[in-house]
């Protein structure tokens, strides 16, 4: 974790203090500052200035003005972004530790700390000069009167889980092969207390998981199928909730080599769905949610090797269904289909999958949200959408109308793996729907799992999208 988050009961004279304030309500200023300082803050409040830096003989003071908004989701997001924006000042003055206190009429401290901490993330593992690249902020302390120890611990675990997901996405294939992704899941399981079982290639062959095996045929590395399980002593759900994450650790497109220029440059991120569900399990276990949750991660890379599957092949899936392959770059749905069929063994209450599945989803709404489809009750969808606004990972629901299924009809097999030229994210969802018989939500995170340019506290490259969404949903489930 890049920044430690903790609670303090007092402020030392040498601490850099950040005060979260309302620019229209400054009664506190005369109590905290001398006349000159209070006057300076009040003048700044009348101008379009978001933060005021006041150097002191020992510790510095930063006054951060936060604006209220009638829309709660927008207000909370603006506060997170304000936390991220303040990093510029913190890094400029090389401040290593801050104490944050709330003098705003509304307690906005949690979201501010979240934005500050998430924005401070770095992935510098492969730099020779790591120490020079390291950002200066190492410690964030909050006043216990503003946030309890339990609230701070929960937030710290959520941030840490998001960082784990980002790290996994940012790792190159030279490190993060399918076996190593399974190993990372084991490491997290041991650290945070959830059970991890990994199927190797022989077990996958024995189970006849034809989707995973077909995609893996061109690879030098064996596939893996990881099962992560969190089941505390007392749980609220009688049947488990199952998370499924696409774990394509690198995607060349296979024999249907990706034709778009530069499209392979970031295909290490094609396991973003796996990162989401692994990070979610970290958050769930670290915060000990009283729910039985299982995560399934089918993993391989997709390469045009000597034995690679090719367009025109017919493969038999784990479910027994046959699939005509029209494009080997539509591989994610094949590995997910095997995992979704495996989920039936648990007789789940709800299944939620995450995948960087289609360019169509990214083109439809960009990185500003997540495309999703569902067969679950509307009440479940409404709760998930509410969580989407809570963490500002907003959801756009697409239909699963029966007519889309016509695009997947094959002349020689039960189904084909590619639809027509339009609504690609929906036909991919319809393909997956063929393999389920339970309440299900499908999230296509192709647009938001990986960014070429940072977006506020969503740092460049891996974003860890979905971790905070899943946790908020399950916490309020």
Relevant CATH superfamily of the largest domain: Zn peptidases
Instruction: Tell me, briefly, the overall form.
Output: elongated
Low-confidence stretches: none
CATH class of the largest domain: Alpha Beta
Give the radius of gyration. Answer: 24 Å
Q: In the CATH scheme, what's the topology name of the largest domain?
A: Aminopeptidase
Helix content: 25-40%
Structural class: alpha/beta
- Quaternary form: single chain
Main sheet specs: 9 strands, mixed
How many domains? The number is: 2
The percent range for strand residues is 15-25%
Average pLDDT, rounded to a whole number, is 96
Q: Please tally the helical runs, counting DSSP H or I stretches of 4 or more residues.
A: 16
* Intertermini distance: 28 Å
Looking at the overall shape, the CATH architecture of the largest domain is: 3-Layer(aba) Sandwich
Describe this structure in words.
The protein starts with a strand and ends with a helix. The protein folds into two domains: 142 residues, Leucine Aminopeptidase, subunit E, domain 1; 319 residues, Aminopeptidase, CATH 3.40.630.10. Strands 7, 8, 9, 10, 11, 14, 15, 16 and 18 form a nine-stranded mixed sheet that branches. The chain has a six-stranded mixed sheet with strand order 1-6-5-2-4-3, sandwiched between helices. It is an alpha/beta fold and 477 residues long. β10, α11 and β11 form a beta-alpha-beta unit.
């Amino acid at each position: 974790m890049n920044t430690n988050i903790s609670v303090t009961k007092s402020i030392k004279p040498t601490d850099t203090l950040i005060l979260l304030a309302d620019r229209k309500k400054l009664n506190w200023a005369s109590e905290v500052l001398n006349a000159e300082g209070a006057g300076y803050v009040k003048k700044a409040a009348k101008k379009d200035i978001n933060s005021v830096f006041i150097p002191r003989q020992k510790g510095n003071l930063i006054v951060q003005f936060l604006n209220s908004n009638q829309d709660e989701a927008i207000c909370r997001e603006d506060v997170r972004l304000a936390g991220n924006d303040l990093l510029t000042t913190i890094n400029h003055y090389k401040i290593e530790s801050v104490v944050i206190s709330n003098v705003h009429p509304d307690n906005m401290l949690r979201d501010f700390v979240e934005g500050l901490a998430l924005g401070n993330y770095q992935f510098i593992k492969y730099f020779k000069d790591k120490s020079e690249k390291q950002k200066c902020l190492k410690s964030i302390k909050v006043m216990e009167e503003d946030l309890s120890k339990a609230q701070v611990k929960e937030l710290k675990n959520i941030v840490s889980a998001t960082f784990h997901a980002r790290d996994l996405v940012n790792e190159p294939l030279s490190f993060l092969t399918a076996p190593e992704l399974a190993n990372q899941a084991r490491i997290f399981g041991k650290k945070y207390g959830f059970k991890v079982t990994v199927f190797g290639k022989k077990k996958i062959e024995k189970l006849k998981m034809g989707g995973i095996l077909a995609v893996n045929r061109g690879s030098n590395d064996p596939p893996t199928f990881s099962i992560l399980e969190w089941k505390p002593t007392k749980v609220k759900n009688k049947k488990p909730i199952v998370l499924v994450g696409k774990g394509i650790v690198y995607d060349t497109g296979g024999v249907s080599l990706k034709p778009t220029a530069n499209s392979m440059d970031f295909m290490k991120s094609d396991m973003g769905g796996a990162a989401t569900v692994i990070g979610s399990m970290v958050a769930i276990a670290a915060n000990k949610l009283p729910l039985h949750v299982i995560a399934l991660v089918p993993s391989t890379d997709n390469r045009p090797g000597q034995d690679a599957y090719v367009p025109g092949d017919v493969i038999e899936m784990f479910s027994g269904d046959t699939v005509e392959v029209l494009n080997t770059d539509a591989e994610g749905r094949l590995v997910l289909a095997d995992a979704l069929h495996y989920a039936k063994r648990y007789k789940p209450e709800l299944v939620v999958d995450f995948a960087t599945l289609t360019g169509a989803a990214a083109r439809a709404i960009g990185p500003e949200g997540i495309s999703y489809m569902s067969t679950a009750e509307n009440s479940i969808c409404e709760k998930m959408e509410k969580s989407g606004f809570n963490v500002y990972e907003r959801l756009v629901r697409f239909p699963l109308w029966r007519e889309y299924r016509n695009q997947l009809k094959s002349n020689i097999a039960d189904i084909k793996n590619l639809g027509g030229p339009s609504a690609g994210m929906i036909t991919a969802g319809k393909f997956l729907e063929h393999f389920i018989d339970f309440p299900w939500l499908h999230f296509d995170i192709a647009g938001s799992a990986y960014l070429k340019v940072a977006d506020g506290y969503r740092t460049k490259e891996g974003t860890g999208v979905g971790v905070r969404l899943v946790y908020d949903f399950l916490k309020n489930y």
